[in-house]
Amino acid sequence: MLINNDTIIKDNDPFIREKSMPVELPLSDEDRALLQDLYNYVKDSTDPEKAEKFNLRPAVGISAIQVGVPKQLTAVIVPTLDKDGNEITAEFMLANPKIVSQSVQPAYLDSGEGCLSVEGEHEGHVVRSARIKVRAYDAITDQEIEIRARGYLAIVLQHEIDHFSGTLFYDKIDHDDPYKEIPGALVI
Ligand code: CO
What we know:
- The chain is an alpha+beta fold.
- It has a single domain, classed as Peptide Deformylase, CATH 3.90.45.10.
- Helix content is 20%, strand content 27%.
- The protein contains three helices and eight strands.
- A five-stranded antiparallel β-sheet has the order 1-2-3-6-7. The protein has a three-stranded mixed β-sheet with strand order 5-4-8, with helices on one face.
- Strand 2 and strand 3 form a beta hairpin.
- The longest helix has 17 residues.
- The N and C termini lie far apart (34 Å).
- The model has no long low-confidence stretch (mean pLDDT 97).
- The structure holds cobalt (II) ion.
């Protein structure tokens, strides 16, 4: 599937609000190929030459609904820290990811969020959980996994999983007071 900034569905298309359905496991060839295309998009989007040549907006994640497929499939590639504090890249090709627990502590990105499906400006705190536990099938390692995510990775996973319910990041901004203080929040 050709995925670029022209083919990605934007928020002026009501389809972006559709619910995504879980996929059957083991993954079909079709679903695996789509996950691979989503992953390749994210990977290539951060290569400036490829991004320019193929019209890719830089991203750390993309979900299937954004390319017109209402299935619970998403790819994320996120810089993060391992448990010893070393910089690593967290890469996933996830089917049916589900948040099974989340911290009470909230978190938000200081610079706000963006989305491949959103071209307008929407500034403000997008309040999410600071830590989450996600269960999913991962097509990179070909196994059921549990991800304990904190900080930036936790934010990105929540953003992508929100796409499955048709939720966009700016739905979570308090439009009366976009920069209101969030008590106890982890600011990333
Ligand atoms: Co998005």
